[in-house]
């Protein structure tokens, strides 16, 4: 059943869902490994979370097209969380608790939480994570040791001497492939749409290193700089390689801070992702947010119990799912099955992947989260958006994720109060013979705090109506509210609602590609 109540025949769409699931698997495999690498967790943990996201969460979610798994947005939290909890098993207890908190959020119908976070703060959070990813991965990209940065600043010659030439060469070629694969000239070819660049880069990196071993031994990357996954002969042996949460860690007060941070950030990233995927859905299906929080909560509890990383719904995987022609959640399930089969039967092959190639994949992920066009867009919007955005980035870089988000929210609230918050709109309904006419006249100052009220009002407008949104009397309308109004206008035709905007400037909605 879907969120609208209609029954879905999953076998009828299997012809499209199976190849889509295969494509998403090819996208997810290097990302699962790479995100685990960036998180300082066992690489196997990334695969576990990908499997749980496909095999468990896909069926619990109300979304037909979103795909869940380990997310780049959680790498900093996981890295800091493992360090705070001192052992990975203790951190897993925090993941289990975070899942329970998400279930609680779903039960109290807190899916509206995403509407109360300014987009400037959320974009700042993702941009900061992108910068941290880039900073973290440069040493692995160059095949250097963990003390690369400290050595470089104290002794440049010694720092550069720790760079492995072969690993750097493999990383550079991998990065070049990823950049080339993203260009319009390559994207026009059908193969570029069906085969992800990350997969090509990883496969070529294996071939290059095997060439180095055979012909240029000095350049060959050693086992310390290769993927290390446990080799599992059968499902029966799976239990021997899984990690389990340390229940004694619940006595540690820091566990609750880590769990709360995971629950809030994972929930926000999930809600943003499913909203983005819903916009791409050709059938315009809507994902129920509260059910999604419940599904993610069960997924995180399951992943935590089995030794996996925390998860979210992920835009990259979901976008790949949509563009490859998926019709139902069967595609996400198939991707999870493929991930499971890969660790059962391909571990020896996966252990040939150089870490510098995965670092190249993560450098591209980091760049896309913090690309220069994002900064230019925030500057163009105005200081009310740019200042909270840049302060959130700086606060996260110099403190941690949770503190940085809180600082960004405080700054955002300051600008909201400065805008002199008043009643957001006047609502007037008129009866006409053809269709009901509803006039929404916005007030003089419409701030971000009004966003939730306006969005909920727009969501509950009757079908087959004529809606006039008038900003004639408005001196200030917050960017987030303008964005919400534009999104409503884009999708209103699904309910046969005719929308007329008066004195409302158009804004560009967020590009998820």
Automatic annotation (TrEMBL):
Domain SLC26A/SulP transporter: 15-389
GO BP of this protein: transmembrane transport
Keywords: Membrane, Transmembrane, Transmembrane helix
GO cellular component: membrane
Subcellular compartments: Membrane
Transmembrane is among the record's keywords: yes
Protein name (database record): Sulfate permease, MFS superfamily
Topology relative to the membrane: Multi-pass membrane protein
InterPro entries: SLC26A/SulP_dom, SLC26A/SulP_fam
Keyword Repressor (UniProt): no
Biological classification of the source: Bacteria, Pseudomonadati, Bacteroidota, Cytophagia, Cytophagales
Membrane-spanning ranges: 20-38, 43-61, 90-108, 115-136, 156-179, 191-208, 255-277, 298-320, 332-365, 386-417
